[in-house]
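An example makes the point: we print one protein in full, the chain in one-letter code, the fold tokenised, without further comment:
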Amino acid sequence: MHVLLVNAPPYRIQEPYYDTPPFPRSTLAFLAAYVREAGVDVQVLDCKFDRLSYEETMKRVIALNPDLVGFTAFTNEIIQAGRLARMVKKWRPELTTVVGGVHLTALPERTLREFPQFDYGVIGEGEETLLDLIRCLERGEEPVGVPGVCLLGRDGAYSFGGDRPKILDQDSLPMPAWDLFRPAREYVIHTSRGCAYSCPFCMNPNGRRVRARSPEKVVQELQWLYDYAKPSAVFIGDEIFTVPRSRALAICRAMIDSGLNHKIKWQCHSHVRSTDLELSILMREAGCFIVNVGIETGDEASLAEIAKGTSLANIKQTSDILRKADLPFCAMFILGHANETHASAMKTIDLAVKLNPTVAAFGIMVPYPGTRVAEMAARREGGFILNEKDWNDYNKQIGDGLSLVGISRKELEWLQTWGYLKVFLWNLRFGDLAKFAWQYRGEGLSLAKKQVKNLFRREMRPKPVPATAVRR
């Protein structure tokens, strides 16, 4: 069976860094490596990375002439994947189409019914499931009962083969098949899967148990990438790189011992509670040029509600540690927490101004399927109102998936813009503001267009709810 794994073209170019990324999709690299090692003839097609239109993509698909096309998709990509799958099916109706990724994992049956052009779904971690599905199809068997596989039968009944156990030994997986892509300026690699925390706005698809690769395997992959592409930057895409701490220290020391710290600059995600001075200094020495820390909110009540185990005092301490270590950091915030008001949102912006991070990122809450926020919004709890729009609006920067009772959507979007400006202006960082505006000019233009539309559209007011439903 000839297999083609695809990342579909974007809906439109509104966030250039993600819609036309300088890095290939790591999911495709992991899946391709695993099935290739088992002897499967596999190719990859990352349409975003290669800047391909739907028409150009179909020409590539036809030239490759696969028997099975597998699609990966986040929630705000599922419509695009469905569109390409429909085009593929129109070309060759007998061809098998498979979809995987976070959206399908969160809403398996709904996704297959909403997009009938997908024959099968792969739920959760995909390597073993995809290979079992391929082998089953090669034998001419219907993959009913295969763990991790879901489908709609000929009678329309939904079938799921049951959960597949997580891959505990991450070192058993082959190195991602980066050689199937052209050399890139940047790469996203993963040194672990899983996150011990359970934030209400995150689906946590990899589970709460952190399953880590060994430092030796990580350094081996980084060395290969340097020899192959000499990338300008690498993003360690773990949910939290600094957990467990001992392994993060070991990886940093291995980078320094191998000399990779002078060859590759990298960034990662950390957590307020897993940031300390020794590790931060070592990360900087190992080549880390910025660390991303999820602050989320400047309102103590909201911090308690999202249960990250942090406080304003913890956050200030982490900021001081990173400054002492001379390690630049991006503080990530969300506007639109449960029962958010103008006052609580301003606390978040004012905290960002006080922290004065290297970069402040303000997203607006998105009710991603499979999250507690989505469940609350569906029940109109926490002041959330689920907007009945399509999946393309599930975007934290320029989306429209959620409204709140306590603050209008339009006001949240203006506060988002004000937050970006205020951090630079109140800290007299005019040069940094100019650099930031230029670097993210595409995203800024999309946001500006939306703000102009806000000026002229009539505000849609939500239906009133009892006062007891709003905390503040």
